[in-house]
Amino acid sequence: MISPQNLPDTERRMNGHVKSMSFQKFMESATTLLSLLLIMAVDSTKTVAASRNQQCGNALLQTLKLTRLVRKESTDLIKTYKVYQGEMSDLFCEGSVSNIPDPSISGLDPSEKIVSIYTNLQMFIPHFKRVYEQQTDLQSPTSPLLTELTNVSLRSRNLALLIKAFYQSLFPNLPVPEPAGGPTTLPPPQNVFQQKVYGCVVLKTYKKFLLDVSKVLNNIKGKVCRRRIQMNALFF
């Protein structure tokens, strides 16, 4: 058997050249494969990011639609409420009641504003229940007012759930704070006149709150989801 040392110089050089070419082809193939894998990884990341941006927009759009619907129904509810309160119904809504939730939305950044919306919704719901209980004593069981009160209360609960889900989708690492200070403070026992004033003030205040909710959500719509798209574009 001829050892490599005993091969002619020309044949040794050819063997070395063949080995060099084989290694070069191997490196070229490896580089091409790595490039393809990187492209696939980036495309996959972009797809996931685009999907999240779409989810952000869809969740917010769904929340906005329900907010507008509840706002319309609360406007109709106030009209129905006045019809079923008898004389001086317009004056009832001009009264003043303590311990009604503040309709203004607090916070500087989107996370704080969304939490404020959620907290206020949770605080309004017990007031709706109290208004409904009071009106059951003043209206017939088949009164349209009771039906509309029930509908607005249920939709408000659903809106609170949507707001909470939207917050968790945007800020998965942040807990959703619950209303501080324990249960919502409700008014003490009231006479009929006070009940009528209380009910109308609650509904009017809630309507104003929903208007502010729509404004805040529209503002967030132009910032939060768009910011995600811009951030993804910077990285990819």
TrEMBL record:
Its main location: cytoplasm. The keyword Hydrolase does not apply. Transmembrane segments: none annotated. It is found in: Cytoplasm; Secreted. The keyword Cell membrane does not apply. Gene3D superfamilies: 1.20.1250.10. Belongs to the CNTF family. CNTF is a survival factor for various neuronal cell types. Seems to prevent the degeneration of motor axons after axotomy. This is Ciliary neurotrophic factor.
